[in-house]
Write a structure and sequence with these properties.
heterodimer, A: alpha/beta, six-stranded parallel sheet, 16 strands, B: alpha+beta, two-stranded antiparallel sheet, two-stranded antiparallel ribbon, 6 helices, 31% helix, globular
Chain lengths: 640, 172
């Protein structure tokens, strides 16, 4: 099938190398999994007790209830919300890790880390009602981190990071539906409890429990981003490159993969120290040390340090196939265990660093924050040693690179807009939405999924929308897809954007001294950073004195795959955003759950899921939803 | 030589994937999602049964001297030139007398919902390379589509492989 093909020519090139090298990649393993189980695909397989597994016949041509009596609606809802709990556990685990680092910083126990962004610390403290005046940074940090850690276990008040970061209207919705979370870990445990044998069988009640879990996930995401910014700095616009062409034959090439900046930020800082660069050069690497990012770690180090990004989750194995990677350093999430096999074939050290994320066949170097610099140096030296071994051996590096302008945190976007209107930075955005130069805003989030031709959905939908003057934001593997395919290059604004959008992006670019437009898609960070675009939506809603469900803003996850995407998608809908999915989620085994998620929920939260695998039809549906919302705001509309 | 759906019973995990694929292949859209959303759910023509620990898919054997064909008074059930037993092209002739259901030793002919009409494996489920949907869906390859001769030959070679294993072990 044509649309199963990857879009990116360097991905295709490396797949040919995989074939001739007889190395199995995710593409091969997907083929060998076909056909996939229809019961799993539709969500009607239950393994929650040992009387099962039970399956419901999807066509009413066999059992319609499991052994305990649970029907398709119950089973589908239970499976979905367990996925949401998995996603919330991942994001909040990431956030908790950052909180522990900040705690060590506040106690002076992690010398390599510091509070890099006191302004953000003050802003977060103020939002939480923590006094900041006449106090040292570390005192405030200590209080903020205590508030952060208090988010996890059961609380007497709703999660602060869920209710202080959104509109009053959203807080009222949470209260009305009784979906305000009271402790992130607590909600995750509650979901595990209510979905076990013989607890909650009411599909709608289960879904409301899932919404509560998803809002807890939002709190975890926002917390993660806040703490990362405090520790590592708020991203600002930065120019870099993307794709495997950045790999250099005569450099020590180090790929950073996973999610959390705790490890990767330290590797970047250490790899740029003159002594270690000298060591690399002394080992024969005349081009020094070349760092590169994969997946969301790639976004973290691109946003803050301009480190080029080479692959997203689906393409993570391919850089190793160049034969020129001297270490792949991973922390957690979306790291395929298959990397060990690919790395072994090419003599590349695969280095796991986290106690909870080990891979058979990898070298494990436990990373601890107390000795972060030493550990980073140890890992980089391992890469230098590997370089010496592979020196002068043949490599196959695709030549393609794309220019990338990234680093658009909420603060950076507001600062850029402030160059047009210092007193009221959001006013130019509002004016251009009202006058139609910007038809609406679409956030592309979510993963890459092997079931979709790699990058195809992201790029096809975004190009349709950009041409129709939709302002596009991106995070996570979506942003990675745009980076590798040239859509984070300001030139792409001139090539693909509609006239209205082009004028706006050019005006902002010129006002900021860029001598040209901003790129047509603004890279806002990793997948945990999806709270950044929400911050903008909340600010816009508050300024216009409306709520998020009124805004011409839509989210899209056209190639999603992880449990994290299930929770992000669900909180996006809960916050009032129509949310497009490019793959059919495993809920269609229940007509009731399908209807609730795509229709009924609109009455409760204002958001709902739009399921459309075809990228062009999806773009049209997204555009029409923006128009529907424009019409309700009494501003000009236009046809597709 | 005619290819048949043959079964390696020892490989069946009881996953029912063959049933789902059979239903989907007999739906108008021929996709899982389309079949799920359709008003008239498609009917499976293969059945996974289990007794104790033995699980097995059971489908029409397309017998040469087929009791169902012999007893069908209206000749709705008949042999095609390819040797398949079917009534799919003569459904209007079916009286719903259920003689075929009573006669079939395998129990693989069924009623079409609440209509008085018999439904059975019609092989109208082949993909572009001519493989039946149930065979294609089987994750353990318990279902195979091959000629009887090839199937036998495969079994003989498996036996030889066992012997070879034994011999090489005894030499160790």
């Amino acid at each position: 099938m044509k649309n199963q093909e990857p879009l990116d020519s360097s991905v295709k090139e490396m797949l040919a190398v995989a074939k001739t090298s007889n190395v199995s990649t995710v593409w091969d393993r997907y083929q060998s999994q076909l056909p996939q189980c229809g019961f799993g695909e539709t969500g009607i397989c239950c393994r929650n007790c040992l009387q099962g597994p039970c399956r419901i016949n999807p066509f009413g041509d066999g059992p319609d209830v499991g052994i305990c009596g649970a029907g398709a609606d119950t089973i589908v809802a239970r499976n979905l919300i367990r996925g949401i709990a998995g996603g919330a556990a991942s994001h909040s685990g990431h956030a908790k890790h950052l909180a522990h680092v900040l705690k060590k910083v506040s106690k002076g126990e992690a010398p390599a880390y510091s509070v890099k962004e006191t302004a953000k610390l003050t802003a977060v403290a103020t939002r939480l009602g923590i006094p900041t005046e006449n106090r040292t940074t570390l005192e405030v940090a200590g209080d903020v981190v205590q508030a952060a850690l208090d988010e996890f276990s059961e609380r007497e008040t709703p999660n602060a990071w869920a209710v202080t970061t959104v509109t009053a209207g959203r807080v009222a919705m949470m209260k009305e539906l009784k979906v305000a979370p009271y402790g992130i870990d607590s909600i995750i445990a509650e979901i595990m409890h209510r979905t076990t044998l013989g607890v909650d069988a009411d599909p709608v009640n289960l879904l409301l429990g899932g919404i509560k879990g998803a809002i807890a996930d939002f709190a975890g995401c926002h917390l993660g981003t806040d703490l990362a910014d405090i520790l590592f700095g708020i991203p600002t616009p930065t120019v870099s490159e993307a794709n495997m062409g950045v790999i250099k034959e005569k450099a020590v090439n180090i790929a950073l993969h996973g999610h959390n900046p705790v490890l990767s930020d330290m590797i970047v800082a250490t790899a740029r120290e003159p002594e270690i660069v000298a060591e690399a050069k002394a080992a024969g690497a005349e081009q020094g040390i070349q760092l590169m990012g994969i997946c969301c770690t790639g976004s973290e180090v691109l946003m803050r340090h301009g480190v080029p990004t080479v692959a997203t989750a689906v393409s993570q194995e391919l850089p190793i196939l160049t034969g020129a990677i001297d270490a792949m350093i991973v922390d957690y999430q979306c790291v395929y265990p298959s990397l060990a096999n690919v790395a072994e074939c090419f003599g590349t050290p695969l280095i796991t660093t986290m106690d909870i994320a080990k891979i058979p066949g990898a070298t494990h170097i436990e990373f601890d924050e107390e000795h972060a610099s030493e550990k980073a140096r140890e890992i980089i030296r391992l890469a230098i040693t590997a370089f010496k071994r592979r020196r002068n051996k043949p490599v196959h590096i695709p030549s393609k690179t794309s220019k990338v302008v990234a680093g658009f945190s909420t603060e950076a976007i507001v600062a850029a807009l402030a160059k047009l209107n210092a007193d009221d930075p959001l006013q130019p955005l509002v004016d251009n939405i009202v006058n139609g130069n910007i038809q609406g805003v679409v956030l592309f989030a979510g993963c890459s999924n092997i079931k979709v031709g790699h990058d195809q959905n992201f790029v096809a939908i975004a190009k349709e929308l950009i041409a129709r003057n939709v302002l596009v934001l991106a995070t996570g593997c979506g942003a990675g897809a745009f980076a590798r395919n040239g859509l984070l290059d300001p030139q792409a604004t001139l090539d693909y954007a509609g006239d209205g959008l082009k004028a706006v992006l050019t005006a902002i670019g010129e006002a900021n001294g860029l001598n040209g437009p901003l790129p047509p898609i603004l890279h806002m960070g990793s997948c945990v950073d999806n709270s950044r675009p929400v911050d903008i939506a909340v600010a816009l809603a508050n300024k216009l004195k409306v709520d998020i469900p009124q805004l011409p803003v839509v989210a899209s996850a056209p190639e999603y795959k992880t449990e994290k995407a299930l929770s992000i998608g669900t909180w996006s809908v809960s916050l009032g955003l129509p949310t497009h999915l490019g793959l059919v989620p495993p809920v269609i085994g229940s007509k009731l759950v399908t209807r609730v998620l795509t229709q009924d929920i609109k009455e409760l939260t204002g958001g709902y899921f739009i399921v459309e695998p075809d990228p062009i039809l999806a773009a049209e549906k997204i555009f029409n939803v923006l128009q529907e919302r424009r019409q309700k705001l009494n501003i000009s509309t236009r046809r597709w | 030589m005619q290819k048949e759906i043959l079964i390696r019973y020892e490989r069946c995990m009881g996953c029912h994937s063959c049933e789902v694929a059979c239903s989907v292949a007999h739906s108008p859209s021929k996709t899982l999602v389309g079949a799920m959303l359709s008003d008239k759910p498609p009917l499976k023509q293969i059945y996974v049964e289990q007794i104790d620990n033995l699980k097995a898919p059971i489908a029409c054997r397309h017998c040469e001297e087929a009791p169902c064909v012999e007893l069908c008074t209206t000749h709705a059930l008949h042999h095609t030139p390819d040797g398949l037993v079917t009534n799919s092209d003569r459904q209007d002739k079916c009286l719903g007398c259920w003689m075929c259901i009573m006669a079939c030793p395998f129990g693989v002919i069924r009623q079409d919902g609440d209509k008085r009409r018999a439904v059975k494996c019609d092989r109208e489920c082949l993909d572009e390379s001519g493989i039946p949907a149930c065979v294609k869906a089987c994750p353990t390859k318990a279902l195979v589509f091959s000629t009887v001769a090839d199937f036998q030959a495969g079994k003989r070679r498996e036996q030889v492989a066992v012997l070879e294993d034994c011999t090489s072990h005894s030499q160790d």
